[in-house]
Automatic annotation (TrEMBL):
The keyword Nucleotide-binding applies. Signal peptide: none annotated. This is 2-amino-4-hydroxy-6-hydroxymethyldihydropteridine pyrophosphokinase. The gene is folK. It comes from Pseudothioclava arenosa. Belongs to the HPPK family. Transmembrane segments: none annotated.
Length: 194
């Protein structure tokens, strides 16, 4: 298989074994590189409010552009393996976590198909809290709604175009409410020390 270019989101809001959330994100990126995944770009790290509000301490979030010959499901499995190695456990949706690695997009692929992607993209907020898809859906169905994803993604891929909606990352980020964007604050670049 030829290489694919992927966008991923990284986040953490709990320390683990003395490792701060930002350090965990750096370690996750190192784990990807050690697995043979080429890291093409990494956004700045941002401090973002936990979602839903009151669900835990602020997160540190970032995005990265990757290149690999892994198929989307294989990359998702690698992301989950790295999460587990870094102490991630899954008990319920939208919980505080030591690390969260989300597969956001794979080039211009729509998975499993446009109809399913559209249905999950349009899922009502109250259903999002209790429903989770059983298959990999790309682009990530909440991508266009999340400032903690779009702001860092705009650092590294402002021109990436959502294959279902046709909107660029820059356009989606610009459409977010100003008050929401104001809560996303840069912490530091991935290759610098905090």
């Amino acid at each position: 298989m030829d290489s694919l270019v992927y966008q991923i989101g990284l986040g953490a809001n709990l320390s683990d074994r003395g490792r701060k959330p930002a350090e965990t994100l750096v370690r996750a990126l190192a784990g990807l590189a050690e697995a043979g995944v080429k890291i093409r770009a990494v956004s700045r790290f941002y401090r973002t409010p936990a979602y839903p509000p009151g669900s835990g301490p602020d997160f540190v979030n970032a995005c990265a552009t990757l290149e690999t010959a892994l198929a989307p499901q294989e990359l998702l499995e690698l992301l989950h393996r790295i999460e587990a190695e870094l102490g991630r456990t899954r008990t319920h949706r939208w919980e505080a976590r030591k690390v969260d690695l989300d597969l956001l997009a794979a080039g211009d692929l729509i998975l499993p198909d446009a109809e399913v992607q559209s249905r999950w993209r349009g899922l009502a907020p109250e259903r999002q809290a209790v429903e989770a898809p059983e298959v990999l859906i790309l682009p990530h169905p909440r991508l266009q709604d999340r400032s903690f994803v779009l702001i860092p993604l705009a650092d590294i891929a402002p021109g990436w175009r959502h294959p279902a909606t046709g909107r660029t990352v820059a356009e989606m980020a610009a459409a977010l409410p100003e008050a929401e964007k104001a809560q996303i604050r840069p912490v530091f670049a991935a290759n610098s020390a905090e």
